[in-house]
Specification:
- There is one protein chain.
- By secondary structure, this protein is an alpha/beta fold.
- It folds into 2 domains: 3-231 and 401-419, Glycogen Phosphorylase B (Rossmann fold, 3-Layer(aba) Sandwich), CATH 3.40.50.2000; 239-396, Rossmann fold, CATH 3.40.50.
- It is 42% helix and 14% strand.
- The chain has 15 helices and 13 strands.
- It has helices at 12-27, 41-46, 57-65, 74-85, 88-98, 113-122, 156-185, 194-198, 242-249, 267-280, 326-335, 348-358, 371-383, 385-396, 403-412; strands spanning 3-7, 31-36, 50-53, 104-109, 126-130, 204-207, 224-226, 255-257, 284-287, 302-305, 319-322, 339-343, 361-365.
- Strands 3-2-1-4-5-6-7 form a 7-stranded parallel β-sheet, with helices on both faces. The protein has a 6-stranded parallel β-sheet with strand order 10-9-8-11-12-13, sandwiched between helices.
- Helix 1 (12-27) packs across helix 15, helix 4 (74-85) packs parallel to helix 7 and helix 5 crosses helix 6 (113-122).
- The protein is globular.
């Protein structure tokens, strides 16, 4: 039995995949310790894992409540300060405390710079997890990152120059002082252009998505392995609301609307959702833990639920309308239903682009999310036989996938062979 330390930074969409892999590692009799925000402590403990806090729930709420979090540029600044700089020293110190030489592996996202520094400082083996392909820089199949020019016709030199400018003008000014000052305390040399190569562990890099969604590129880290979407939600611990089953059995498959678990400014989204559904004469389920975002006196055929695991809902739904998070995107792909993505920031525009390329949905930006446009796009998604066929073809690719098992296999590769149980 080895000690597996898994770090999750972000919202439910960032935490759930880590917990799915943690369950697989626990089934292999490894000791699992989860480092994440206290907002997820109850969930972590219900699953039976040891919990160590990163930050406070109040800090999490402050970031989630800030409307800038969904701005393309200001959101990056906010994310870097909260997810990277603020957690740098706490992660390092926790890992130094928990590390058992020769018997420990750390599994962490790109934002866990404290884990990357710990790997350099005292040699703790590190697996970098990437939930979405947008974090992999490439001049070939370049992710869609507005306002950058990343199309296939854009010259490679211009793509490289844009990444350089992003580092020089936006990313490094936020990271250099705090990160390199901490590295200097530890006797480590300074780093520049953190997001270019250094952010990936030299030991192992895992992309938690399949190659048909984003193929390996020749200019990605050579130690990158793709496992597929982890496909984990809270179905194992979530309360089943009997009203959901009654609603699903009472009529046609509903539209499902969610702006994402981290969205604290979703009132406009749900107003459009209700109006578009009403004009279509359809049924809908609105998902949000924030009841104040939901319009009052919902029409017949539209219901609000705080949370429903997608694995219990989407296969009986018509379309998923969402923010473009990688977890929601994957769940809709697996359920064989079309999706309409309202992209705002981070990986969302790239996921919307990939969904369109697969022929299983459409994407628009937040300022375009208006009733006439949404109604028209939903009509197309509901009526298109071509999209319906493509959804079924893509969903079939999930049947033989073993993403959590493959991720656990690669993580175990960093252990001495004596610590890996064989069946």
């Amino acid at each position: 039995m080895a000690r597996m330390i898994l770090i999750a930074i972000g919202s439910s969409g960032d935490v759930h995949p880590v917990l799915g892999i943690a369950e697989e590692l626990a089934q292999r009799n490894h000791e699992v310790i989860i480092l994440t925000n206290p907002s997820f402590e109850s969930l972590v403990r219900r699953l039976g894992f040891e919990f160590r806090p990163l930050g406070t729930s109040e800090e999490f709420d402050t970031v989630a409540d800030d409307p800038d979090v969904w701005h393309r540029v200001r959101g990056v600044r906010l994310l870097v300060r909260w997810a990277i700089v603020h957690t740098l020293r706490p992660i390092y110190e926790l890992l130094r405390e928990l590390y058992i030489p020769g018997n420990t592996v750390v599994v962490a996202p790109l934002t866990a710079f404290g884990a990357r520094v710990a790997r350099e400082s005292f040699g703790i083996p590190l697996v970098t997890l990437h939930l979405q392909p947008v974090v992999f820089r490439s001049v070939h199949d370049t992710p869609k990152i507005p306002p950058m020019l990343t199309g296939q016709r854009v010259p490679h030199w211009l793509k490289r120059f844009q990444f350089y400018l992003a580092d020089r003008l936006l990313v490094d000014p936020l990271l250099n002082r705090a990160t390199n000052a901490f590295r200097a305390e530890l006797g480590l040399q300074p780093v520049h252009r953190f997001m270019n190569h250094w952010c990936h562990s030299p030991d192992c890099v895992l992309g938690l998505f399949p190659d048909w969604y984003a193929p390996l590129q020749v200019d990605w880290p050579q130690n990158t392995h793709l496992t597929g979407f982890p496909m984990w939600d809270e179905s194992v611990v979530a309360h089943r609301d009997p009203r959901l089953q009654q609603f699903l059995e009472a009529g046609s498959p509903p539209l499902v609307f969610t702006p994402g678990s981290a969205m604290r400014h979703g009132k406009d989204f749900f107003e459009v959702a209700v109006a578009a559904t009403d004009q279509l004469g359809g049924r809908a389920i609105l998902l949000s833990r924030h009841a104040a975002h939901i319009p009052r006196n919902l029409p017949a055929g539209i219901m609000h639920f705080p949370y429903v695991p997608f694995s219990q809902l989407l296969a009986r739904s018509a379309v998923l309308v969402h923010h473009g998070g990688i977890g929601s995107t994957a769940q809709a792909l697996a359920a064989a239903i079309p999706q309409l993505i309202m992209a705002m920031a981070f990986d969302q525009p790239d996921n919307a682009n990939r969904v369109q390329r697969l022929g299983v949905g459409r994407g628009i930006f937040r300022h375009e999310f208006q009733v006439p446009r949404v109604k028209k796009m939903l009509e197309h998604l509901l009526r298109s036989d071509e999209i319906s066929t493509r959804c079924k073809q893509v969903a079939a690719r999930f049947e033989s996938a073993r993403p959590r098992e493959e991720a656990a296999d690669w993580i175990e590769h960093l252990l001495p062979s004596s610590e890996v149980e064989t069946s």
